[in-house]
Amino acid sequence: MNKKELILTFDIGTQSARALMINAKGDVVHKAQKIYDQPYFSKQPSWAEQKPDFYWRCVCETSRSLKAKAGVDWENVIGVTCTTIRDSCLCLDKERRPLRDVILWLDGRRLKTVKPLPAPAAVFLKIAGMTASVNLLRKAAACNWLAENEPEIWAKTDKFVFVSTWLTYKFCGRLVDSTASVIGHIPFDVKNNAWMKSDDVRRVVFGVPDDKLFELANPCEVVGTITAKTAEETGVRQGLPFIAAGSDKGCETLGLSCLTPDAAALSFGTTATVQVTTRNYIEPLPHIPPYPAVAPGCFNPEVEIYRGYWLLSWFKREFAAKEVVEAQKLGVSAEKLLDERLRDVPPGCDGLVMQPFWTPGVSMPFAKGAVIGFSDVHTRIHLYRAIIEGINFALMEGLRSIERRGGIKVQRLFVAGGGSQSDEVCRITASMFGLTVCRIQTFEASSLGSAVAGFVSKGVFSSFEEGVASMVHIKDEFLPDEDAHNVYESIYGRVFAKMFDKLSPLYQELIDIGNRDLRASRPRK
After folding, report:
1. Are 83 and 10 in contact (CB under 8 A)?
2. Coil, strand or helix: which one is 444?
3. Each residue of 138-189: pLDDT tens digit?
4. What distance lies between CA 205 and its chain's CA centroid?
5. With contact defined as beta carbons under 8 Å apart, do 252 and 444 qualify?
6. What is the reported pLDDT for 119?
7. What's the pTM?
8. Cβ neighbours of residue 269 closer than 8 Å, sequence gap 6 or more
9. Contact between 27 and 453 (Cβ < 8 Å)
10. How far is 200 from 188, CA to CA, in rounded Å?
11. Which domains, ranges and CATH numbers included, belong to the chain?
């Protein structure tokens, strides 16, 4: 191993873009970050879009900034990787020019209606009890919305790609993407690591014909080299290999060292997730496929809590003006002050329980959020802690489903994402799950995992296991409090696990009322 060798990796997130130079010991040697002034814009309520060249401009800016910091280390880069947000799509014409703005993963547009499914698919889904969930998927798929609402653009679309595909093309001039990045509303067969066949009954869900699909590559594959134009725009040396990595969550799980099913990755980000790595194909929920993993021959069963730790940002905006002002005076973050006040509230929040399903998911198409158990003892800090506990209860439910369906048992948890920077959140998590929570040496877990793939590709490590052993190091461990865990187990089993089934009929009533009555009662502006 050459101690000076570095992987240059770009991490394109929802809120910021980062360029990092990482060595084979897992040290972030140099870093540049661009926080977006406007992560997305909305032409219509609930829409979330971004300009096609936005992310590439951020790549160029962070790359040039990083080069200025790196000095002679810039010449030690042996390969380039990129990890990005998932399920964010773009339409390209035959000249590979964008036809419209990027539709982001958090976009909320929906088809008003869906056409009836062909008879064989309709019967199959009805027997499986998946008709409502599949129709939710069909309504949420950008490809279906484009075909119905922007037919001229869809007709001109030569290739329907993800942000990760587009950036790969910008780096090396080839329209190809890692199979570990093909995650979203698109006809990808995870089990066979390939596009679905034309006669696959599942093809009716996502209306992307074969000729609009792009080329696939395996993780660690060198898919091209940095072009002269890219070198001029970014400062990255022409001819360096561009290496396929994976999605942000997949790279994060790898970067947290979760390569076997006894370790689970918890991501406390805008979307909270629990994910494991297995060699067996495990559906985390019935009929919901796992995601393709960066590690060869592996899968990442995952359960997502949409609007996960976004809820803490919502709480801060709506209820924490006092802490925001006080934090500014003290020169600290409002989250730090709120974390200190979490200790004033006991485990279980004196009977306040939150169900964090602010946004419906595929497995729960009628879900809504709920908070039950309010009494006169509760304060806004109770609500703050109830949000954290509610997200964790939902992640516990997801993990237990993965364990049960896969016949596995998780022994340790590894955490990443903004929420993991809080010691108090990590302590609460350990006690709720009854497992040790591990935090690694860097919060840049996605970039670290992407760099592992780069070093494996270059032969610095012979396997992902060897790369993880060298590059990932546990920095902090949080042990569960047994008394608190017993409280949480009682709340989970006797209350939280029953909430959705009990409230689901009421959620459906609210949806029905909202569709018919509430819109008519809104005051005119």
Report:
1. yes
2. coil
3. 888 999 999 999 999 999 999 999 999 999 999 999 999 999 999 999 999 9
4. 22
5. no
6. 72
7. 0.91
8. 14, 308, 309, 416, 417, 418, 419
9. no
10. 11
11. 6-245 (3.30.420.40), 257-445+465-525 (3.30.420.40)
